[in-house]
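Researcher: Going back to the complex we discussed earlier. I've cleaned up the inputs and rechecked each line, so this should be the final set. Can you rerun the prediction on the complete assembly and write out the structure?
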Amino acid sequence: MFRKAENLILKLSPPLVAVAVLVSSLAVFMWVPTDKALGISQRIFYYHVPAASTCFAAFIGAGLASAIFLKTRNEQWDHAAHAAAGVGMVYATIVLITGSIWARTAWGTWWTWDARLTTFLILWLIYAVYLLLRAFSQGNEMGPRYAAVLAIAGAVNIPLVMMATRLWRTIHPKVINNPQGGIQDPRMIATLVLSMVALFTLFLWLWALRMRMLRLGDRVELLLADHYQSSQTFSRSNG
Amino acid sequence: MFALIWKDLILEARRRETVTSLFILGVLILLVFNFAIDIQSDNVAELAPGLLWASIVFSAMLGLSRTFLVERENGCMTALLIAPLDRGSLYIAKFSVNLLLMLVFEAMLLPIFILFFDLPVAGKLLNLIVVIFAGSIGLSSIGTLFALAALGTRARELMLPLIVLPLQVPLLIAAVKATSMVLDGASLGELGIWGTMLAAFGILFATVGWLTFEFISVD
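Model: Rerun complete. Updated structure for the full complex:
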């Protein structure tokens, strides 16, 4: 089932990503009207928001896949979680960087301890540690399970982090579902949807690639172990 | 399960290593903060809750990382795992021991803290203790779960604070807010969302630990 999904994604996504990224970039840079209040800097929003939603989906997906992995012991699910968290981290980094650039022009500062910024930094740290834990437990057969428990705890924690930091304080603009202000122009909404599609298909592609990489890495390890074993028996029988 | 809790408590009562070192570390952290931040009588009320929790969190991390170290040093880990005891109970036992040790340590630290920063606590002490207790449940539930995982990696004790500190941020925010409200004279009922979050965090992570512990404790 994983092989099929992976092959399908790897076959379909390159042309899809190419078209979607091209069309959405054209929309972002040529077509969509410039925001009256914020000016040109608002355009970064079409990368910032889709990256953030994809990243949330990736982290929650990693948590779910980890739970299934613990239940079924099927390591394909472990690879799915590992790949989702890894690519999700790349997206989280994009969110932090684009957000920082935008904040510099709009708020006059690279960073403030606003609720959503803090939330994202915490999420970024949790999944950075997740990848670190994987690195530190490489070769340990329990490693994937430790990581799975961390991914579950991380996903369970996301709503709490969001709630806590939001109640703490916020100056982050609320643009979606906000009757006063926010984006109203249908062209802006269309561009946002296009960017969502582009960044999400790109995510799927990277995720499938990473899955394949992890699986092949496992196979290489197996083959190497096999090779060493047989070369040892060979030298022993010769000596 | 109670035998396990009892065993760990007797061990600690005889050696008094963990709680004593935690206490000294806690005082040291307060000392460091005293120099790092200029604490005056006019800002002490704002800063005190944060300082209290910072020293609790960092000291607790040290204690939590020792949870399974004792078993491993004495070669008892395998015995524990083959004992006819389900892994959920093993988790609950270790979690309770950590919680109790943490409470003893906090009971030692709190008077020093009040004394150092000259906090007016008359009439608020009971509420303050309830808040600290609720926060400790969350801290030890999550710490106990990952103490075993951290010990299994190459980084060992280094890994535990890395895992636990970002996960417990909501708990820390809620605990600091609730503590400063209590010190301002709020009753427990007035804590609202922060009180709920403190309790919810503890219950949530104790449940996650109880459910997932068996998967990481198979050797």
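Model: Worth noting: The CA atoms of residues 7 and 47 of chain B lie 39 Å apart.
Researcher: Good, that matches what I expected from the previous run.
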